[in-house]
UniProtKB/TrEMBL annotation:
Belongs to the diacylglycerol/lipid kinase family. GO terms for cellular component: plasma membrane. Its cofactor is Mg(2+). GO terms for biological process: phospholipid biosynthetic process. It comes from Paenibacillus stellifer. This is Lipid kinase.
Amino acid sequence: MYLFVINPRSGGGMGERAWRRAEECLKERQVEYEALRTGSSEGAGREVERALSRRESWTACVVVGGDGTIHSVLPTLRSRGVPLGIIPAGSGNDTARGFGVPKQTEAALDIILGGSKTGADLLVGAGPEESEAATLTSVACGFDAQVAVNVNAGWYKPLCNALHAGRLAYLIGILHTLMTYKPGRAVIVCDGKKHAFENVWLASVCNLPSYGGGLLIAPQAKPEDGLLDVCVVHGCSRLQVLRLFPTLLKGSHVSLPFVTMLRGRRAAVSFDESRPAIADGEDLGGASPDVRCEPGALTVLTPRPGGD
Ligand SMILES: Nc1ncnc2c1ncn2[C@@H]1O[C@H](COP(=O)(O)OP(=O)(O)OP(=O)(O)O)[C@@H](O)[C@H]1O
């Protein structure tokens, strides 16, 4: 039995459309499922918990939505040990991208019904409820978080989603934020070692390689290596930051002199002055992220190795 958790609003309504298509396929293939439409991130965890508690065993909990919707069910799936399936229907879909889940609903459904299971690490501990918060893609602090906050609140996100150009919304957000953001001093403690940086634009703690719709912020990050990767951009001008963004498409920014990459099992980021932070694209407010990598904390349904 599968539980489908649908965020009808994700991807500017793509969630509802993807679900309609998925439901047709499930009926055609006579798959047993329950469907749960969730209205907000706040209530979703509890609703999913209630739905899952009605049965002893579930094949998987499948999220029809984007990274934010996946984020909302992580604590429940982590504690219950129920595998996560993904039907990508968000603007960025970096979780799906990180696990090789295709955008097309039918192809994603094939993986849910006949793919492999992969043990994935989670970043645990970010946010106000220390023990419960779990993140799958990245916890970002500074400029990139400000971009996400601006994109989520911006008039251009619904427009770009309607045009099926989710990535364009992030590009507009980058330009918009670049004009107003002020870098600051930050300390990153990684596995107990203190790294102090001046003029820090961003510090992102990553479990998957991309965020923001395919920007390869930590190209070496692997969700099954038991480690987190930290990308710090510091000591550079506004123009250099602007020129950094195209390099994120290939991940070649890692060799720039104003980019420092760290790797470890735990990382804490603190700016002298509070900065916005996001986890899986969801706003954490001005929290200073302090996360550890929990190896294999989640099972994800992924394509079969080698494909077929
Ligand atoms: N389970 C949920 N049900 C309904 N709404 C949710 C849920 N989880 C999060 N949300 C809200 O819906 C918004 C959009 O969801 P989501 O993040 O999945 O899609 P997106 O922003 O279009 O895509 P992406 O995060 O992949 O860029 C979130 O930012 C959040 O405010």
